Amino acid sequence: MKPFATAAEMRAVPRSAGFRNGGVSYWFRDVGLPDRRPALPGDADYDVCIVGGGYTGLWTAYYLKKARPDLRVAVLEREFAGFGASGRNGGWLSAEFAGSKRRYADTHGKGAVVALQRAMMASVDEVIEVADAEGIDADITKGGMRLVATNPAQKARLQEEVAELHEWGYWPEDLHLIDPCGEPRLQVDGAVAAAYSPHAARVHPAKLVRGLAAAVEALGVDVFEDTAVTDIRPRTGSRRPCAVTAAGTVRADHVLRATEGFTASLPGRRRQWLPMNSSMVATEPLSDVMWRHIGWERQEVLGDEAHAYCYAQRTADGRIAIGGRGVPYRFGSARDSNGATPPQTIAELWRVLARMFPVAAEVPIAHAWSGVLGVPRDWCPGVDLDPATGLGWAGGYVGSGVTTSNLAGRTLRDLVLGEPTDLTRLPWVGRRVRGWEPEPLRWAGTHMVYGLYRGADRRESDRVSRTSRLAGVAARLAGR
Ligand SMILES: Cc1cc2nc3c(=O)[nH]c(=O)nc-3n(C[C@H](O)[C@H](O)[C@H](O)COP(=O)(O)OP(=O)(O)OC[C@H]3O[C@@H](n4cnc5c(N)ncnc54)[C@H](O)[C@@H]3O)c2cc1C
């Protein structure tokens, strides 16, 4: 496989007449951009102030209000609830937890890592149950997760990965190898191996975040939109911690940062988490004939074993939505708020789609979009609350935040309420990691790492049977 799409391939991508790129996501085009809630009117006083109205902020507000209806909780959101990755993602509500299991085990022991993995599996069901209880129709189908290998090196890696995960909290019934051509059928061209886990569901991300914001508001949380926080300040003496905005300052006993991929734009946090891009395309709906050919009746979320991996779902309205890394990072942690995807990335994603599903190669691409997610220097997600400063945070989910943010919300609730629980003892609580390197090292390093991963994928597609050494170099350089 070539690393980059050529100009001819870019032109060859079939696009709908009404093809749309950027503008948040297909998910929000499907449901319509929301009317914005009022902005913060001025100085205010709350018990808990949450900065960021994505899944992390909203789940935290939800569980706090459920536990303590008397708490006064505010969410401050720069744009609108769901504007960030929570309204743009691939809709994999899966039990995958990013980060090195060995790193967590070094500080908390192996049993704690197994407990974390089991908590992730329970979180998938928790999201589904709350959505059901709150009447949130988010096109949720718990069809599980299928990972496919399309060359011998990927196959070897998949087999090792399944065996390795059986050491860390997945029992054989939680993840196992399956016949890639077996029933229920999902016809991925060239699949030489596959694994299946029941612990995943397909969701419509915007419907979930929109419903969650409404549920939180119905519980009495004040959600202020068009309200950019310009600084978050810790407790000093008798002055409570606060979130500063142009309209006024919100003081609270606890101020919780839930800004994931946008964290670099807050003062003093430029190098804390790398804002990594992820890009997606969605086709026009496929015909019934095509769906009969492909199968995919179980509607499991689908991923591959490439180093520059892809993630896909069959949408409730019969499209294929597929995503991948694209341009991994912008110099200086800059962000592109319109979320447009470069033509080259669209062509690369289409090539992956056409390779996996040749029958869908002629189906026009109707939508493209991108978003940012947060990557800590050690690639390990975390959650914390410092009682001394009154400041808390959660994130750095490295692209697996749909389920993890729910676990984060319940953990932040327990930390705020000061109750040691099974959740606050999990090994991702209280992690401190160093920041990323200054520029231009940050930019050069990230691009080199993804260049190496693409090179490794190219070599492996030549049907070598082992993982390319380039991938090992990339992992060491990345500090994974
Ligand atoms: C294209 C893409 C595909 C993905 N696919 C998947 C997937 O399939 N499965 C999965 O598990 N994960 C996936 N992820 C990752 C997942 O979506 C995120 O980890 C998760 O949504 C993070 O939620 P969050 O609430 O922490 O952050 P966000 O949803 O990014 O929310 C942060 C919010 O903070 C607001 N904000 C930022 N700065 C300020 C400020 N200064 N003041 C006020 N508000 C501010 C933003 O506007 C934003 O709404 C994907 C991510 C992307 C980008």
UniProtKB/TrEMBL annotation:
All copies of the FAD dependent oxidoreductase domain together span: 47-415
Q: Record's Pfam families? A: DAO (PF01266)
Record's GO cellular component, any one?
cytoplasm
InterPro entries attached to this UniProt entry: FAD-dep_OxRdtase, FAD/NAD-bd_sf
Q: What is this protein called?
A: FAD-dependent oxidoreductase
Species annotation: Streptomonospora alba
